[in-house]
Amino acid sequence: MIRLENIHKRFGDLEVLKGIDVEVAQGEVVCLIGASGSGKSTLLRCINGLESHDDGRVTIDGVEVDRRKPSIHDIRTSVTMVFQRFNLFPHRTALENVIEGPIYVKGEPRREAEAHGRALLDRIGLATKADSYPASLSGGQQQRVAIARALAMRPKAILFDEPTSALDPELVGEVLAAMRDLANDGMTMLVVTHEMGFAREVGDRVLFMDGGLIVEEGPAESVLTDPQHDRTRDFLRRVLNK
Amino acid sequence: MPQFLSKAGQYLPILIDGVVITVSLTIAALVISTVLGLVWALMRYSGIGALVLISKTIVNTVRGIPILVQLFYIYFVLPELGIELTAFQAGAIGLGIAYSCYMAENFRAGLEAIEKGQIEAAQSIGMKWPLMMRRVILPQAIRTVLPPYGNTMIMLLKDTSQASVITVAELTMKGKLVASSTFDNMTVYTFVALLYLALSVPLILLAGYLERRFGTR
């Protein structure tokens, strides 16, 4: 469904992506792991055109992603994103954040969008916070609202950019639980994460990136417990024995 | 004091005409400067090379020319080019353009205070630029912009007095007329000053109200 072919990306002299090929099938949960600066987030942001790529092709169900073309807006409604720093709209309540896209981008009737929005908030355990503003929610609650906002567009896939990295440790669990719930429901997910436990348990596949390349990939269990490459082994040793 | 009041009472009908003109001029110039200022700021914020350049050029040129000179130019030079304006129109347009640059800088500060993550969040749910501006960026920018906006409104009210040089019969002009015919400078100018002060109070209250209305949360 999501296909990346030979993606290259440079920031000035620095080449952050050096030819990446990835394919994500419908319903698959793929976790992208690797050290900071290995290009994981950049890769993710090329998929919905928040970042442009210099070479190669990104396609979603055969439609090419090109941030300069008008089609980019439709692509973004079908592949939404959850950010490290939540990026909720601070001037709107939790429910308003969730229904903003459905009403103003997709033109859904307000009543329908609200019903769907409330159902989503209920599903992530925040039904009582519908009328709260982001500032009065904890980080974990904000990130769950952000997940509901991404879901409300009824996307084909959701991109997660280090969704738990900005959270206090005790709040990580509730966000991962919400993501696990989505995965069990068959949502196609591409997750940049440092949560190895989550990657092993929920991920169908794990990609390990290093120096702008995918060094190793395979079923989550085998990559994480029996890595074949030295660099993967090094990385995992460092993260797991912190 | 009673003497001041009785004399002031005599001058009031004439000065009130000036107050009406001053208020109308302030409102007209405020509308023009707000609209134009928003246009300059959005052009600058768009990141599109040509628009940024045009906006920067306009703002820096207009800011660098005294308001009096701009008023003279619009009132005395434009007719030679075939554009005839009444004194009031020339005053409103001149002050509107001059102030649009201060407004643009206020608005720009508000726009640039918004986190990049907000833009990305809006884009990530498929919003196009105009919708993002209307629903995400501008409502947040308003909060940062209101305090300096209120300040600029009050400056504008006082600067309408400069339009007297192109014969707009606003409060300062009326005051001068009364003073030169009565020689009662003390009473007239004290009264004129108090009238300006009285006019700025509603603006201060309005600014405060707007800040409370949009400011919290």
Q: How do the helices and strands line up, and which of them pair or pack?
A:
The complex is a heterodimer of chains A (242) and B (217).
Chain A: E1 2-11, E2 14-24, E3 29-33, H1 40-47, E4 55-60, E5 63-64, H2 71-78, E6 79-82, H3 94-105, H4 110-123, H5 139-152, E7 157-161, H6 169-184, E8 188-192, H7 196-202, E9 205-210, E10 213-219, H8 220-225, H9 230-240
Parallel strand pairs in A: 3-8, 3-9, 6-7, 7-8
Antiparallel strand pairs in A: 1-2, 1-4, 4-5, 9-10
Helix pairs in contact in A: 3-4, 3-5, 4-5, 5-6
Chain B: H1 2-46, H2 49-63, H3 67-77, H4 87-112, H5 116-124, H6 129-159, H7 171-182, H8 185-215
Describe the protein.
By secondary structure, chain A is of the alpha/beta class. In chain A, the strands form two sheets. Chain A has a six-stranded mixed sheet, with helices on both faces. Chain A has a four-stranded antiparallel sheet with strand order 2-1-4-5, covered by helices on one side. In chain A, helix 4 packs across helix 5 and helix 5 runs parallel beside helix 6. The longest helix of chain A is centred in the C-terminal third of the chain and has 16 residues. Chain A is globular, with a radius of gyration of 18 Å. The mean pLDDT of chain A is 94. Chain B has a single domain, classed as Orthogonal Bundle (MetI-like fold). Chain B has 217 residues and is mostly helical. Helices cover 83% and strands 0% of the residues of chain B. The model of chain B has no long low-confidence stretch (mean pLDDT 92). Chains A and B meet through helix 2 and helix 3 of A and helix 5 and helix 6 of B.
